[in-house]
Design a protein that fits this description.
Layout: E1 2-8, H1 12-23, E2 28-31, E3 45-46, H2 48-57, H3 60-66, E4 69-71, E5 73-75, E6 80-82, H4 83-86, E7 93-95, H5 98-111, E8 115-117, E9 121-126, E10 132-137, E11 140-151, H6 158-162, E12 168-169, E13 174-182, E14 190-196, E15 201-209, E16 212-220, H7 233-242, E17 254-255, E18 260-263, E19 267-268, E20 273-274, E21 277-279, E22 285-286, H8 294-311, H9 315-343, H10 361-370, H11 390-398, H12 407-426
Parallel strand pairs: 1-2, 1-11, 2-8, 5-14, 11-21
Antiparallel strand pairs: 3-7, 4-7, 5-6, 9-10, 10-11, 12-19, 13-16, 13-17, 13-18, 14-15, 15-16, 19-22, 20-21
Helix pairs in contact: 1-5, 1-8, 2-8, 7-11, 7-12, 8-9, 9-10
């Protein structure tokens, strides 16, 4: 059996590529391992420049109609930023529940003419002039040939290893924990962000529509605490409160999905194309989820690869050109994200940074000039250090942890830490508008 394009994986990257290429008349097979999508605690907030990519791919309206919620405000305790008015594209975030988004994009691929097969497991790829893949479905194995095979099988990509690509990784940096809440007492049109710079911790809440919210808590990896499973839900809420989230937000909240933690450090493949096999999405480069650019980067990969494939009948040359361009834009994103870490190399602490938290000056300016940022206007202050309030969290956590939240106790702990949070806030800076919301 032969196709123009075999796409391995039906996530945002694979399903979108399959859809947009099938729409252009290519014969496409997309192979997805799972039979239904479930909550894996994955990206659900498409950052403004990613929304622009979705528009350029012609999938924005489909996402908005089937699963998306537009989010206009970026809200911190210090200010409320209107993303419609302050981002170059005039977009806010487009948020969605990840499993619904994946299903919606696979439906789009099928409706565009792609052959969507699931559940099938791709177990082997063979590079070459005409690359091939071995696909297993219901215990039966068959070989599929294609002009081009694209692996979009996620951050733990097996095809990347089988295809012989060398993976590079940043040193451990952050650990991010996430859970799905219903009935948080917050607005449904704002991302709520709390940075606790003294402890180098971040709590962030994304509205997903239908009264659901994805809540994240990120901290430095060397705290050696990974929140995971029902037993850690109580500690998760405590950590969010310790970062500044009002305890009363959680009074009526329910947890409606798994709690899971992930390492934040970037991993990537230089030049993600070789001899008939290309990589896109997380398989090509998984950026630190703390910065929330993974979905946008995946859509950028799809758009750039699509444009090269449509412009050049020689798909090997076209995929090579995609890989070259990928190296350029991913390294820009990486540098912007990484500038804080690199600048603090003289410090014992490695900072957590998010979206509009300014970076220390020298690397920020270097990174900014690489992506033609107009200015690096940031009021910088020295990072405060101080008593480790997470010791309190750890103490409560080690006393047992609870699957159900106890709002009264959360409130008391919140009162304790609020004093400290207020102190650190007073030494922190206002967010700057020139940041990762800019397109690269
Ligand atoms: C905790 C966390 C929070 C995040 N938050 C954000 C955020 O707020 N904003 C943002 O932009 N990004 C975020 N991201 C990143 C974002 O989730 C990813 O960048 C994005 O989902 C990558 O999509 P993908 O299609 O490359 O991979 P995936 O979504 O992982 O899809 C891969 C697909 O391939 C299938 N597959 C795997 N192996 C095979 C095989 N052998 N055969 C067939 N199918 C296979 C899988 O079943 C899966 O459906 C976050 C990531 C994490 C971990």
């Amino acid at each position: 059996m032969s196709y123009d394009l075999l796409v391995i994986g039906g996530g945002i990257a694979g399903a979108t590529l399959a859809g947009v290429m099938a729409r252009e008349g290519a014969k496409v097979l997309v192979a997805e391992r799972t039979s239904t999508f479930s909550d894996r605690v994955r990206g659900e907030a498409l950052i403004p420049w990613g929304v622009e990519e979705a528009r350029r791919l012609g999938i924005y309206q489909h996402l908005a109609d089937t699963c998306g919620t537009t989010v206009r405000w970026w809200s911190t305790p210090q200010n409320r930023r209107d993303l419609f008015a302050t981002t170059p594209s005039g977009n806010g975030f487009l948020d969605f529940y990840h499993p619904t988004m994946q299903q919606s994009l696979l439906d789009f691929a099928a409706a565009s003419g792609a052959d969507v097969q699931r559940p099938v497991d791709v177990i082997q790829v063979v590079p070459g002039e005409i690359p091939s893949a071995l696909i297993r479905s219901g215990g039966v194995e068959r070989t599929v040939f294609a002009r081009l095979i694209v692996a979009a099988d996620g951050r733990a990509s097996r095809m990347r290893t089988i295809g012989g690509f060398a993976l590079q990784r940043d040193p451990p940096c952050t650990v991010i924990a996430g859970v799905l809440h219903r009935n948080l007492a917050i607005a449904d049109d704002a991302v709520e962000v709390f940075l606790n710079p003294g402890q180098q911790e971040l709590a962030i809440f994304f509205p997903l529509g239908a009264n659901r919210f994805r809540s994240y808590f990120a901290r430095r990896h060397d705290r050696r605490v990974r929140l995971s499973g029902a037993a850690d839900v109580y500690a998760f809420v405590q950590c969010c409160v310790a970062s500044g989230a009002p305890a009363e937000w959680f009074d009526a909240a329910e947890v409606i999905g798994p709690l899971a933690s992930y390492d934040g450090a970037d991993s990537w493949v230089p030049h993600p194309y070789c001899n008939g096999i290309g990589l896109i999405g997380d398989a090509a480069a998984a950026s630190d989820p703390t910065y929330g650019c993974g979905l946008a980067l995946s859509l950028r990969d799809v758009r750039v690869l699509r444009d090269h494939l449509l412009a050049d009948d020689d798909w090997r040359r076209a995929a090579d050109a995609y890989a070259e361009e990928h190296d350029r834009y991913y390294s820009d994103i990486h540098e912007v994200h990484d500038c804080g870490v690199r600048c603090s190399s003289t410090s014992v602490r490695r900072p957590i940074r998010h979206a509009n938290a300014p970076c220390p000056r020298p690397a920020r300016i270097r990174a900014a000039s690489r992506i033609s940022l107009a200015s690096a206007r940031t009021r910088l202050t020295t990072r405060p250090s101080g008593a480790d309030s997470s010791a309190k969290i750890s103490a409560v956590r080690s006393s047992g942890g609870h699957a159900v939240q106890r709002p009264g106790e959360v409130r008391r702990l919140g009162a304790l830490v609020r004093i400290r949070v207020r102190w650190t806030r007073s030494r922190w800076h206002r967010p700057a508008p020139d940041d990762v919301f800019l397109p690269v």
